[in-house]
Write a structure and sequence with these properties.
By secondary structure, the chain is of the alpha+beta class. The protein has 15 helices and 30 strands. Strands 21, 22, 23, 24, 25, 26, 27, 28, 29 and 30 form a ten-stranded antiparallel beta sheet that branches.
């Protein structure tokens, strides 16, 4: 069982919307503890009505002690194997707890964390804070090998294993309760599950009704933010502590640095005192790893040169370099974080403080790279276009990653190259493999890899018995060739079921999986195999029940990918065969996605 703790304090405007999303969860084995923390706007009365609507809800009333105390009170009466926290003005998609708990059941990890979307005036958008940490699903990872995960400091986009949570308590009477809890738990955990699917809709309140995180320029927020970071850091040891100090200077503490031009003298004086105390224990080597202008800002702060800090921050916010020119954002090639130590492009939505691009405004300029602008099929040829007409292609070629490393030159004109997939076929026929796209601009820049820094469509196509699919790995465009031994040949509706017929030998007892997140099965059904053919059936009633009621109208439709067990026990995506096209099947549509994987999507 999962217990969800919801602190409630003067959120009458949002409470029912939040609780309705919890009641609609497709994970049914849950208990919801509402902690009314001395509300004065009728929120407590709204909470009291919920146990009659849904017996899984119960209410605890207490005098106002703050968010941390309310969370602690709820956790103290929580039962079950898992624990989660939800703020009463936020919303969850129906599948959120299903995916997070299923991941933990499969891996045995200490906690699972999912991606976050911002909910602003009814619309959803990616959370800048989580852009790098939740780029893809990764199960059972060691936080020490993925240290950038500590940028994800929310407590509410996670499900915690109760035995791991233990007697953990949130600090009381302060803001920013999450940081002193989540950061040390990352440091203490042996493995975590990271789900690259939004599991939490973080509401950004309108002007006049700001949340705590939207009131950065208040002195109490300044004090509490420094206190939270110091508390988290004191609970860490060794290289993880050093890494978190670097992280804090690029994220939490950078945010209060950026409001200095708008702050009064009292705020600036307090900032100087708190920052000097923090920086006194930070090794200069940490500062040397920061972007140069951010490192300069913190060195000036350490030396008490606040007027110079304010001037530097103002220049950065205006998008200007020290020499007066326009700053280059300097986003790392590939736009990713893995192994780079770079901070996500964090911003504060609705704060009234407008850093020019968040962390991206501070990053050092980088050498220009040639980027892919798009990939599309033109007839039976794959056309790869480059961003920026100012850098026409001198040479575009693919190099095979397998032994032998064959290279294939592409006919290139202007800012694009064209690939005939048959050129990737060897003398002995098609063979699975992956080809890396390389480029040499006609002028100036050295040859290098073709980078992908912005999302682009990656359509796949069957060519002569092989699936040719452009993919992005490590921020680099590649072309994968796959000749699957097992694939789905046909899918549709039959007698109240979704049927999937396929080719390929499958062992007795094989399960057909539908996964909301890669590697995290949601639904599983036995396969009926007969020689080189097999069939799977999914009751449409199961899919109807699993679709769930959307938490907000803007929510994307429920989506699953089909998968089969792989040789190492993990699931692998099931590819759709060359003749399988999308069609309706009761409450869903079934067909290949752009990468050729069989996908099931809620209709309507």
């Amino acid at each position: 069982m999962l217990t969800v703790v919801v602190p409630v304090h003067n959120v009458a405007r949002y409470l029912d919307i939040c609780l309705e999303s919890l009641a609609a969860s497709t994970y049914r084995d849950l208990s919801v503890v509402l902690v009314d923390d001395g509300s004065t706007d009728g929120s407590g009365d709204l909470a009291d009505a919920w146990p009659e609507r849904d017996p899984r809800f119960r209410v605890v009333h207490q005098s106002n002690h703050g968010l941390g105390a309310a969370r602690n009170a709820g956790a103290a009466v929580a039962g079950g194997d898992y624990l989660a926290f939800v703020d009463a003005d936020d919303v969850l998609p129906p599948y959120a707890f299903e995916v997070l708990v299923n991941a933990l059941e499969q891996t045995g990890s200490d906690f699972a964390t999912g991606d976050v979307a911002l909910l602003t005036s009814g619309k959803l958008s990616p959370s800048p804070l989580h852009r790098g940490t939740h780029r893809e699903t990764r199960l059972a990872v060691d936080p020490r090998a993925h240290r950038y995960l500590v940028y994800d400091r929310l407590a509410c986009n996670k499900v915690w294993r109760r035995s791991f949570w233990g007697d953990t308590r949130f600090p009381e009477g302060v803001h920013y309760e999450d940081i002193p809890v989540t950061v040390p738990l990352y440091g203490r955990s042996r493995q975590v599950d990271v789900v690259g699917l939004p599991v939490y809709y973080w509401r950004q309140r309108p002007p006049g009704d700001p949340s705590i995180s939207q009131r950065l320029a208040e002195q109490r927020n300044l004090d509490d933010r420094f206190a939270a970071v110091v508390s988290a850091l004191s609970a860490l040891e060794g290289s993880f502590a050093t890494w978190y100090a670097e992280t804090a200077l690029q994220s939490d503490l950078r945010l209060v640095l950026e409001v200095l031009p708008d702050a009064d003298e009292a705020y600036r004086h307090r900032f100087r005192k708190l920052a000097a105390a923090f920086l006194a224990d930070v090794d200069d080597g940490v500062l040397s790893r920061l972007p140069s202008r951010l490192a300069e800002a913190w060195r000036l702060t350490r030396d008490g040169e606040i007027d110079a800090v304010v001037e530097l921050v103002s220049r950065v916010r205006a998008g200007k370099t020290a020499g007066g020119g326009v700053a280059v954002s300097g986003a790392a090639p590939g736009g990713g974080l893995a192994g780079s130590g770079a901070a996500p492009g964090e911003g504060v939505v609705g704060s009234g403080v407008a850093p020019a691009g968040g962390m991206a405004a501070w990053r050092d300029p980088v050498a220009p790279v040639v980027r892919a602008a798009g990939v599309r099929w033109s007839g039976d040829r794959l056309r790869i276009s480059l961003a920026g007409s100012s850098a026409p292609v001198g040479l575009l070629w693919l190099r095979e990653g397998a032994p032998g490393a064959r290279a294939v030159a592409l006919p290139a004109v202007g800012g694009a190259g064209t690939l005939s997939p048959s050129r990737l076929r060897g003398k002995a026929g098609w063979a699975p493999g992956e080809w890396t796209v390389n480029v040499a601009p006609a002028r100036g820049a050295a040859r290098g890899l073709l980078r992908v820094t912005d999302p682009i469509a990656l359509p796949s196509r069957w060519v002569g018995g092989a699936l040719v699919a452009p993919v992005v790995r490590g921020g680099v465009l590649r072309v994968a060739v796959d000749q699957p031994e097992v694939f789905a040949a046909e899918a549709g509706e039959d007698a109240g079921d979704l049927y999937v017929d396929g080719f390929g030998h499958l062992a007795p007892g094989t399960l057909f999986h539908l996964e909301r997140a890669p590697g995290v099965p949601s639904l599983a059904y036995p396969v009926i195999a007969a020689g080189p053919k097999w069939m799977a059936r999914v009751p449409l009633a199961d899919l109807t029940a699993a679709i769930g009621r959307p938490g907000v109208p803007a929510e994307p439709p429920a989506t699953w990918r089909a998968a089969l067990p792989g040789p190492d026990g993990e699931t692998v995506p099931l590819l759709a065969g060359p003749r399988l096209t999308e069609r309706a099947a009761g409450p869903v549509r079934v067909g290949p996605d752009e990468r050729g994987v069989l996908r099931v999507v809620a209709a309507g």
